[in-house]
Amino acid sequence: MTDHDEKTVSLERGVERPRGTDVADDREALLVRGPAHARAPRPLAGTLHGDRGHPALGSVPRGVLREEAVARLRPRGHLGKAGAPRDDQHHGDRRGASGSPCALRSPKKAGTLRSVTREAVREGIGVWRPAPGHLPPNAWFGVPTRRGGVSRGPYASLNLGQAAGDDPGHVLRNRTRMFQALGIPEQGPVRVRQVHGTRIVTPAESPAEALAEADGILVRAGDPWVAVSVADCAPVALVARDGSHAALLHSGWRATRGKIAGAGVRMLAERGIRASEIAASIGPCIHACCYLVGPEVAREFSKELLKPHPGGVALDLPLAIARALEEAGVDVSAITVAPECTSCTGSAFYSHRRDRGVTGRHWALVHLARSSEST
Ligand SMILES: [Zn+2]
Ligand SMILES: [Zn+2]
């Protein structure tokens, strides 16, 4: 959609936070106000690449919409500088950052913000995807941006979350639009009831009429599409290099602390996938530039994962997930991190933190085509 989304979001601040089950798990670490730089999204310029392999991706025209580069995780010690965390944090005094704390981010690039099918281009739906070639060719992992939907105000425009306070009819239309754009069957992806835990289930364990309480879904090639809902929490895909299995995770700070990423690696191991055979992609989430946390959160993480911030100390959520993956045996060179901070990129992403809870939800989606479908 358009840049007016950002303005609309800004104007809507101060609205009461709606009730809903699908909120980010940062309630113990809330900012009173988002940093000023969060309202100035970086320009999205660019091109569109075709993908090969997954059947949803075959017919992408080039040169349309936007692309934004993504960071590949550097080896330990190279992804930003860990500063001494401050321990004099107060809940009531969390002013926004000045300047551009986004400089903390790794500069290395590996991924894109783009649309993936003719339908998506026509509808104006943009989709963040990992860099081409990072995941096996039959694997689809992506996060549709907020563009291309019918929701208004703070939910503009492709809000997919029904529990966020948006018009339910708009959400249903957005979902239908997105399903059509990506070639997802009408009944939609398999989902779970997200509880900020570390449980990972199979699609069969989470039927639509009785969603499992879980924060991850493990699929085999040929399984239905699966989705998790995010707005600042990290969507993470762990994909076997042979394309046979994958796990999609919802990793906010609680699930990250609980090492859901390691749980995903173990579940894949139970299916015969060694950690060294896993490619991991950490999608757009809130970064240390905007993720000011209180002491009750900071104490749960090692110093390396805490970054100095003008307002106190911030959690480097994607780095925390990457380190958990490394601990579980995933090669650091097989882990990529999207550089987009959801809170900093308001033109593309909802941010629970930036918008103080009054915002939409993205769905991160995974599908593994059967190998016969991928050629
Ligand atoms: Zn979340
Ligand atoms: Zn940020």
Please, could you describe this protein's structure?
- The protein is an alpha+beta fold and 375 residues long.
- Helices cover 16% and strands 18% of the residues.
- It has 7 helices and 15 strands.
- The protein has helices at residues 4-11, 118-123, 168-182, 253-257, 260-270, 295-298, 317-327; strands spanning 71-72, 111-114, 127-130, 139-144, 200-201, 216-220, 226-230, 234-240, 245-251, 278-282, 292-293, 306-309, 312-315, 335-337, 362-368.
- The model is unreliable at 1-52, 58-71 and 74-109 (pLDDT under 50).
- Bound molecules: zinc ion (2 copies).
- One zinc ion binds next to loops.
Shape: globular
- The CATH superfamily is identified as CNF1/YfiH-like putative cysteine hydrolases
Q: Catalogue the unreliable spans.
A: 1-52, 58-71, 74-109
Contiguous helical run count: 7
List the helices and strands in order.
Answer: HEEHEEHEEEEEHHEEHEEHEE
Output the CATH class name: Alpha Beta
Secondary-structure topology with pairs:
Blueprint: H1 4-11, E1 71-72, E2 111-114, H2 118-123, E3 127-130, E4 139-144, H3 168-182, E5 200-201, E6 216-220, E7 226-230, E8 234-240, E9 245-251, H4 253-257, H5 260-270, E10 278-282, E11 292-293, H6 295-298, E12 306-309, E13 312-315, H7 317-327, E14 335-337, E15 362-368
Parallel strand pairs: 5-6, 10-14
Antiparallel strand pairs: 1-14, 2-3, 3-4, 4-15, 6-9, 7-15, 8-9, 8-10, 11-13, 12-13
This protein binds zinc ion (ZN) (2 copies).
One zinc ion (ZN) is lined by residues 102, 287, 289-290, 341, 343-344.
